[in-house]
Amino acid sequence: MSGRPDPIALTVLTGFLGAGKTTLLNRLLRDPALAETVVIVNEFGEVGIDHLLVETVEDGMVLLSAGCLCCTVRGDLVQTLEDLLRRRDNGRISPFRRVVVETTGLADPVPVLAAVLYHPYLKLRYAVTGVVTVVDAVHGAATLARHPEAAKQVAVADRIVLTKTDLPAGPAVGGALDEALRELNPAARVVTAVNGAVPAAAVLSGSLFDLDGKIADVGDWLRAEEHDAHAHRHAHDVNRHGASIRSLVLTADRPVAESTLSLFLDLVRSSYGPRLLRLKGLVNLAGSTGGPLVLHGVAHLLHSPATLAAWPGEDRRTRLVLITDGVPEGAIEAMWAAFTGEAGLDRPDATALYDNPLAPPTLRPAQPSGAAGGSAGAGERSS
């Protein structure tokens, strides 16, 4: 008579938009300790980018349907975890020893935990070995004060990874951020990432998830979720999370000139910088013979772009995903169309921009009240 198989370690990797979860995950996956790991990625919006940037084998990647990890998507998570077990038990996939669930930056992590902790079968086969929350040292304090999801992500954490501490603005906000972290989670271990990396043992090893040392709210949230698996307070439009947060996707079928891209990014950040919760994308840069240019940005901060050695798939279109808070609908799309779209009554032909991207005065609309001045180009940092 065979005994029950050992539970499979499951780690929840969370953190607000732009905190650096994907960068951290890629560094962790290079560690031999994460061999035989399945990564489940959940993204917010109609078109996903994050899963294309996770450096792991195809068989070890699962992309959940777009949206928040609750309600229907929470159901998808349960179904995915069950399906992985069936395929593993039947020998249809290689045995795996660990699952990492990377949530969208807007996710409330409580339904994710409840999906495993209180499911009659999953709790026997998976062991939640911790919640790792990534916090951006530059924008973290303001994010925690403004977004309840970010505060919950910190409150439930077993381990907190601080990123971007090497940037000039990081140490300046350290006091306020440290105070906020300690108030939300006095017991969590805080680890500082160096260039986005931390040793795997520092964040993935540890005992089972429990409530010891966490604020009382965490237990209340989990009990409420246990009693009402469908408890939620937001609409289910996959491009919405709250009344003002939206996801938008910008695409271009033909290569984009570097000067055009730089001007577009300058215009967006100077006009709507504080309202950009995340900017991430793959760019088919004109003249490039290799893979796409990868962009990452939050608010006015745009990280130095990197170039992939090859395209992650057959689709070689430029795809930029932006998540915004309070930006008028269609405003950024109109800017993008002015740079890369077809000719129209209210915008120039894109060909003119490729030939002389500095010329058209119509590309400088009036900035909204309180907008910041000009910012750095595509390859520079700006805070």
Textual characterization of the structure:
A 7-stranded parallel beta sheet has the order 3-2-4-1-5-6-7, with helices on both faces. The chain has helices at 21-29, 50-53, 71-89, 109-117, 122-125, 140-146, 148-155, 169-172, 174-184, 200-204, 216-227, 258-272, 331-340, 350-355, and strands at 8-15, 37-41, 61-63, 98-102, 126-136, 159-163, 189-192, 245-252, 276-283, 293-298, 301-302, 306-307, 318-325. The longest helix is centred in the N-terminal third of the chain and has 19 residues, at 71-89. The protein contains 14 helices and 13 strands. It is globular and about 60 Å long. Helix 6 packs across helix 7 and helix 6 crosses helix 9 (174-184). The model is unreliable at 44-55, 65-73, 230-241 and 347-383 (pLDDT under 50). The protein is of the alpha/beta class.
Task: Predict the CATH topology of the largest domain.
Answer: Rossmann fold
Strand and helix order: EHEHEHEHHEHHEHHEHHEHEEEEEHH
Strand order of the largest sheet: 3-2-4-1-5-6-7
Task: Provide the helix percentage.
Answer: 25-40%
The share of residues in extended strands comes to 15-25%
Provide the low-confidence segments as ranges: 44-55, 65-73, 230-241, 347-383
Radius of gyration: 21 Å
Give the tags.
Rossmann fold; Hypothetical Protein Yjia, Chain: A,domain 2; 20% strand; single chain; disordered C terminus; six-stranded antiparallel β-sheet; 383 residues; seven-stranded parallel β-sheet; alpha/beta
Give the SSE map.
Layout: E1 8-15, H1 21-29, E2 37-41, H2 50-53, E3 61-63, H3 71-89, E4 98-102, H4 109-117, H5 122-125, E5 126-136, H6 140-146, H7 148-155, E6 159-163, H8 169-172, H9 174-184, E7 189-192, H10 200-204, H11 216-227, E8 245-252, H12 258-272, E9 276-283, E10 293-298, E11 301-302, E12 306-307, E13 318-325, H13 331-340, H14 350-355
Parallel strand pairs: 1-4, 1-5, 2-3, 2-4, 5-6, 6-7
Antiparallel strand pairs: 8-13, 9-10, 9-13, 10-11, 10-12
Helix pairs in contact: 3-4, 4-11, 6-7, 6-9, 12-13
